[in-house]
Design brief:
Order of helices and strands: HEEHEHEHEEHEEE
Structural class: alpha/beta
Bound molecules: S-adenosylmethionine
Strand content: 25-35%
Largest sheet: 7 strands, mixed
Number of helices: 5
Low-confidence stretches: 1-5
Number of strands: 9
Helix content: 10-25%
Strand order of the largest sheet: 5-4-3-6-7-8-9
Shape: globular
């Protein structure tokens, strides 16, 4: 899984260095940014474990210029990392269901100076953003019990979806929506309704 001239893993390491996790944490939690575990961002939600984020980005295999959907944008960290990976010729949309986290994440994202990425509120009962589909890549950072058909339907012809389903990390690849499993992870639940 490589993209462009540098191996995907190098591009991901570069992105994580350029966009330190501390920028996406509440002030009081920043001193814990180096902890390789999830950290609270309020409202019972978390900024994901860095190693997990890195592994998910590797599975996603993002290339410059792609259109990427980030479901469960939370602190804005993954949205910003994806924006770095697609570069100015790409496009990233982060959607977040918790209203007060939308503001937190959008402010964090704006500070990174990547106007080709935006973070918006999720709509009640609507998973992802079907109106703007198809997406080249979809990253989901909250876990449903079963693979949501409506997200698979938002993937482009050669799209890739990375999503934790019932604690198992799945990679879904088009054509054919071929599913492979990539280990066990714990995530907050994917919700359907805006609280
Ligand atoms: C692990 S947390 C945040 C991870 C985030 N990518 C980050 O970098 O901070 C997952 C987020 O998914 C959100 N979420 C849950 N269900 C959602 C849905 N259907 N649409 C959008 N966001 C959702 C939660 O509110 C939570 O903020």
């Amino acid at each position: 899984m490589t993209t462009g001239s540098a191996p995907a893993s190098d591009r991901i390491a570069e992105a994580m260095t350029a966009l330190p996790r501390a920028l996406f944490l509440r002030r009081a939690d920043r001193r814990n940014a180096g902890h390789d575990g999830p950290l609270p961002i309020g409202h019972g939600q978390t900024n994901s474990q860095p190693l997990t984020v890195e592994r998910m980005l590797r599975l996603l295999d993002v290339a410059p210029g792609q259109r990427v959907l980030d479901v469960g944008a939370g602190s804005g960290w993954t949205t910003a990392l994806l924006a770095h990976l697609v570069g100015p010729t790409g496009q990233v949309l982060g959607v977040e269901i918790e209203p007060s986290l939308v503001e937190f994440g959008a402010k964090n994202l704006a500070r990174t100076g990547q106007p080709w990425a935006r973070l918006e509120p999720a709509r009640s009962g609507v998973l992802g953003d079907p109106d703007s589909a198809p997406w080249d890549r979809i990253l989901v950072s909250a876990a449903p019990r079963v693979l949501p058909a409506e997200l698979v339907a938002q993937l482009g012809d050669t799209g890739v979806l990375v999503i934790p389903v019932a604690a198992v990390m799945l990679r879904v690849v088009n054509p054919g929506a071929v599913v492979t499993e990539h280990g066990h992870y714990r995530f907050v639940p994917l919700r359907c309704q805006v609280p």
